[in-house]
Amino acid sequence: MWRALRRAGSAAPRSGPGVSGERRGPSARRAGRTCATIRMPEVNTDHLDEQQVQLLAEMCILIDENDNKIGAETKKNCHLNENIDKGLLHRAFSVFLFNTENKLLLQQRSNAKITFPDCFTNTCCSHPLSHPQELEENDAIGVRRAAQRRLKAELGIPMEQVPPEEISYLTRIHYKAKSDGIWGEHEIDYILFVQKDVTLNPDPNEIQSYCYVTQKELKQLLDKAARNEVKITPWFKLIAETFLFKWWDNLNNLNKFVEHEKIHRM
């Protein structure tokens, strides 16, 4: 059963299957910013959710198409289509969390989200930040630390329940998608799996609703999205249509799908 959340001062969440997604940490680091060749556009954010606007100051990790770090830039500038069209690319991750019944936790993103509001998506989708702990690249430990942080921030999962060593890094995808005329995504996305029963206390500014689903229930949701009855995030659609179900069938034997040297161009 989908569980809906209500944001303070907001209308009731929309009905239907769903869960929502991602919040950025409170602090922004500007050290190491290297984007002098791109003039950043000015965008009016007065009409957007105040909490989500504050998160736009966080510093994402800029990368080249081979996932080599080349600098840092604000979340805001990383998600403007005008910059994406000039090639700005950043590092991200997508978490797929399963319980011990092999059900996948989905979320519907809050209508306060700046990119892809109201869309259904995987458990948690966000970005490592440009600070030392999350920049560390050995076995993607920095990305896995960021995932632990975001699972707490978005879904209220206690950090001790999802230590980085229990989060499995499978592979990476490179994709680009527009949310609207102003905002979009251009990411190399680390695919992370974890299987564990966890405690949930989601943030309604991030998440409208959430639910554990079976493979059959996810396929029904994807069918609804194909009929434009619900919206799903583009990265989740790509992953679900390409990889997810074979991974899901092999939760106890994921090692054979590990491809740390490969970036799937979607």
UniProtKB/TrEMBL annotation:
Cofactor(s) required, per the database record: Mg(2+)
Region (Disordered): 1-32
Domain Nudix hydrolase: 88-238
Keyword entries, A-Z: Cholesterol biosynthesis, Cholesterol metabolism, Isomerase, Isoprene biosynthesis, Lipid biosynthesis, Lipid metabolism, Magnesium, Metal-binding, Steroid biosynthesis, Steroid metabolism, Sterol biosynthesis, Sterol metabolism
Cellular component aspect of the GO annotation: cytoplasm
One of the GO biological process terms: cholesterol biosynthetic process
Enzyme Commission code: 5.3.3.2
PROSITE patterns: NUDIX
Example of a GO MF term: metal ion binding
Residue ranges crossing the lipid bilayer per the database entry: none
Catalytic activity of the protein: isopentenyl diphosphate = dimethylallyl diphosphate
Lipid metabolism recorded as keyword: yes
PANTHER family to which the protein is assigned, alphabetical: ISOPENTENYL-DIPHOSPHATE DELTA-ISOMERASE (PTHR10885:SF0)
Family: Belongs to the IPP isomerase type 1 family.
Name of this protein: isopentenyl-diphosphate Delta-isomerase
Gene: IDI1
